[in-house]
Amino acid sequence: MSLWTVLLAAGCGTRLAEAAGGVKKQFLSCAGRPLYWQSLAAFAKSPAVTGVVVVFPPDDLDAAALELGGLLERCHPGIPVLTTAGGARRQDSVQNGLAALPREAALVLVHDAARPFVDAGLIGRVADALAAGHKAVIPVLPVTDTIKEVAGDTVVATLPRDALAAVQTPQGFDKALLLAAFAHAGPDFTVTDDASLVEHLGQPVFTVAGTPENMKITHPQDLARLAPAASQPLPVTGYGYDVHRYADPNRAPGKQPARPMKLGGFPILGAPDVLAHSDGDVLLHALTDAVLGCVAGGDIGRLFPDSNPDFDNMASGVFLSEALLLAKARGLTITHVDLTIIAQIPKISPHAEAIRVNVAALLALDKSHVNLKATTEEGLGFTGEKKGIKAVALVTGWRLEQ
């Protein structure tokens, strides 16, 4: 069944607004993106989630939706993302989010954007419990402090800690059950979490393990928790491979024209021509794929298909530049490149340094971070028979989670 997330980013955040210079907490910067984006990205990466509805404050809806549209265009979450306006209370915002869900959404996760550190494991546990047939699921943590009931300044009772749990989001529901719970409660019944509505309806609520890291940003001192999230890039590696056939001087004209050989943007004079739709730079094609691999950006054929006449004899450096722009938008910093050319002919060694310098310039790297190797296949196979040339590229770097 289709599982959607209602992401609540519609609160006023009055307890935090003064410390944050009047900025509502869901729009505070975290890892270079608004706070709500951290949760949105986590749900977008979950294979269980079909789509997300983001609920924004009514007064901020247009501006927030415009900003979100730019983020979606740059970061491509891979699932549909819708927006709607929130209401006066949290539960009103949830109802508006439910109303914005597509008809096929049978299951729903409700999550507070003020919990930006939700992870794949927690999302998966709630989703798995829903898939197992539970109609209301909440993540909980054991209470470690002693909890006392007080009236004014006086203790009334000490509550049994073993029977208490701290509740988190995302909370998962069968959509029909949650809608029925809202209808049963009526407009005057106010709650602080959605499971309370299901409890009020008399239906069971199942629990799964929460995570201590999934804290809620509530007080000014919590802002310090956002800084580490912005300073922990992940190491990434991208692999690229490409091959081009040499042109037969005696061949009849075909689909692919013959192009003078270039490697790393450097012309290789006296080398065989290569068959290619673009300029046929096998090394830059492999490098472009490796850059895209670092950010899960697909491959060169998808971004620049040879069926598009606009790319006829296009310089491969343009492809690389576009891939680098996409990678930068997705938080990539390249630190090192290792390249290998496999060919029986031409000899690469006379051109190796010029190729390396040119590639370093294209990547804006010092040449000490660009390695170039060349080898043959000892007369074997495609390259050994002098029918073509291959290239392999390995790119390493750091990527900030988007």
TrEMBL record:
Keywords: Isoprene biosynthesis, Lyase, Metal-binding, Multifunctional enzyme, Nucleotidyltransferase, Transferase. Its cofactor is a divalent metal cation. SUPFAM superfamilies: IpsF-like (SSF69765), Nucleotide-diphospho-sugar transferases (SSF53448). Residues 1-235 are annotated as: 2-C-methyl-D-erythritol 4-phosphate cytidylyltransferase. One of its GO terms (molecular function) is metal ion binding. Residues 236-402 are annotated as: 2-C-methyl-D-erythritol 2,4-cyclodiphosphate synthase. The record marks R15, K25, H277, T376 as: Transition state stabilizer. Bifunctional enzyme that catalyzes the formation of 4-diphosphocytidyl-2-C-methyl-D-erythritol from CTP and 2-C-methyl-D-erythritol 4-phosphate (MEP) (IspD), and catalyzes the conversion of 4-diphosphocytidyl-2-C-methyl-D-erythritol 2-phosphate (CDP-ME2P) to 2-C-methyl-D-erythritol 2,4-cyclodiphosphate (ME-CPP) with a corresponding release of cytidine 5-monophosphate (CMP) (IspF). Belongs to the IspD/TarI cytidylyltransferase family. IspD subfamily. In the N-terminal section; belongs to the IspD/TarI cytidylyltransferase family. IspD subfamily. This is Bifunctional enzyme IspD/IspF. It comes from Solidesulfovibrio aerotolerans. The lineage of its organism: Bacteria, Pseudomonadati, Thermodesulfobacteriota, Desulfovibrionia, Desulfovibrionales.
